[in-house]
């Protein structure tokens, strides 16, 4: 009897000889995150604690945009939504939609409405994928603003889409306080991201 690990390795080798499909994503173990880009399956382990801390803290800080308590409201802000851009399936760390563009959440797991904002928390295992493959796809799909957060160096970079290219709008680090598009209605204390 073969171990579960050996079966997973066999499936990964079989994928190398054919385009990956959504069915391949569904067969991944729960401990593995999968994305489909240009017919190729990209896998990565679940995020490490520092990564999760930054992503969770940012979601809390942006709460006034989702709940309207103490802020403007008008947004859906979600952790790890499954974005479907044609045959590509991407899972950013956080995404946001203005409710005027997406009044209700979809019933299933697939989000086909392009988000207004995405955030990727860069880690050693995902940075290359996030920067080289996913960011260009977000721009091509029409995402307006992308944030990149580097937890080890405590940095935030904010990009706006111009045509199909990203243009750096702002860089901040450490314990700076910033008003960052598209959430400039509140001041974001970056130290909250690093300390939780």
Characterise this structure.
There is one protein chain. The chain is an alpha+beta fold. It has one domain: Alpha-Beta Complex (tt1808, chain A), CATH 3.90.1570.10. The chain is built from 6 helices and 13 strands. The chain has helices at residues 4-15, 22-26, 49-61, 63-67, 127-141, 191-195, and strands spanning 32-37, 40-45, 75-79, 82-85, 88-90, 94-98, 110-111, 117-121, 145-150, 155-162, 165-173, 177-178, 188-189. The strands form 4 sheets. Strands 3-6-8-9-10-11 form a 6-stranded mixed β-sheet, sandwiched between helices. A 3-stranded mixed β-sheet has the order 5-4-7, covered by helices on one side. A two-stranded antiparallel sheet has the order 1-2. β1 and β2 form a beta hairpin. The longest helix is centred in the last third of the chain and has 15 residues, at 127-141. It is globular. The relative contact order is 0.12.
Write the layout of secondary structure elements.
Elements: H1 4-15, H2 22-26, E1 32-37, E2 40-45, H3 49-61, H4 63-67, E3 75-79, E4 82-85, E5 88-90, E6 94-98, E7 110-111, E8 117-121, H5 127-141, E9 145-150, E10 155-162, E11 165-173, E12 177-178, E13 188-189, H6 191-195
Parallel strand pairs: 4-7, 8-9
Antiparallel strand pairs: 1-2, 3-6, 4-5, 6-8, 9-10, 10-11, 12-13
Low-confidence stretches: none
For the secondary structure, the number of strands is: 13
Percentage of residues in strands: 25-35%
Distance between the termini: 45 Å
Strand order of the largest sheet: 3-6-8-9-10-11
Q: What is the C-alpha radius of gyration, as a whole number of Å?
A: 17 Å
Separate helix tally: 6
Multimeric organization: single chain
The CATH H-level superfamily is: tt1808, chain A
As a percent range, the share of helical residues equals 25-40%
CATH topology: tt1808, chain A
Order of helices and strands: HHEEHHEEEEEEHEEEEEH
In the CATH scheme, the class would be Alpha Beta
Largest sheet: 6 strands, mixed
Round the mean pLDDT to the nearest integer and report it: 89
Structural class: alpha+beta
